[in-house]
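--- STAGE predict ---
source: upstream dedup step, 1 unique chain passed
mode: sequence only
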Amino acid sequence: LARKFLKELGIPDEVLRFRQHLPGEMAHYALDCWDVECLTDQYGWVEIIGIADRGNYDLTAHSQFSNEELSSYMEYDEPKLVSTTIVKPNLKLFGPAFKGDSPKIKTYIENLSDDEVIALKEQIESEGKFILELDSTFEILKEHLIFEDIEEEVKGERIIPHVIEPSFGIDRILYCTLLHSFKTEEEGFDKEYFNFAKEIAPIQVSVFPLMNKEGLGEIAIDITHKLREAGFTVDNDTSGTIGKRYARADEVGVPIAITVDFDTKEDNTVTVRDRDTEEQERVKIEDLKEVIEAKLQ
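--- STAGE serialize ---
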């Protein structure tokens, strides 16, 4: 998704790299971390996106300190038969051994996860006892507990969702977008301009009257208003020669330029010019919305 996003901004694949963090670089909560880096001419490789797999650390910590249940029940497509080990107090010995402390010790035991039950069983079998630290220290002996291996049909399980944390440095991404969208004569282009991806160009269309007289300016203003009403970002420029206006529009990355000329008054058509190819075509004013939409896709 990060690569797709950056490609849509106009940053080419060849100036991007994805770097996985070494274990010593990651935060204590992270299972995995990746940086997206962009090659710049002034600063070398610059991190522009950081993506961290935080596992279930966040919701586990929130649940622990808020006492709120933040797990989610996931139902299986088909029930599963699973083997598990359960533990319960040996009531004949448990009560007399722990007396008034029995309820809280029992609650602790009943809330153990499957992995914790297995670990408890292994320790009891190897050492004959388990030291439990609550508000006091309790020594739980092998005879205080009963372990049973059972099979049961399970229809689902509760899971604590994991968190993927993407961090996008918007200022650095904007810098890299500008850097890699700017084309120069040194790179073999015949002009210097921004070839912004059409989806992100700040101005989508520039409308020029060939001359700001004999009604051409009014027609250009009417086209500008109609295109804005259709949802386009449109600039109207009447200053300087038509060549200079094309150059200004190219420099700031306007993908489409529309010129209103004297033929417009005769046949209701305008010239539509493409920024990158500089190709021009005559289009009827009533067809402009559809033509521009197609060119901006």
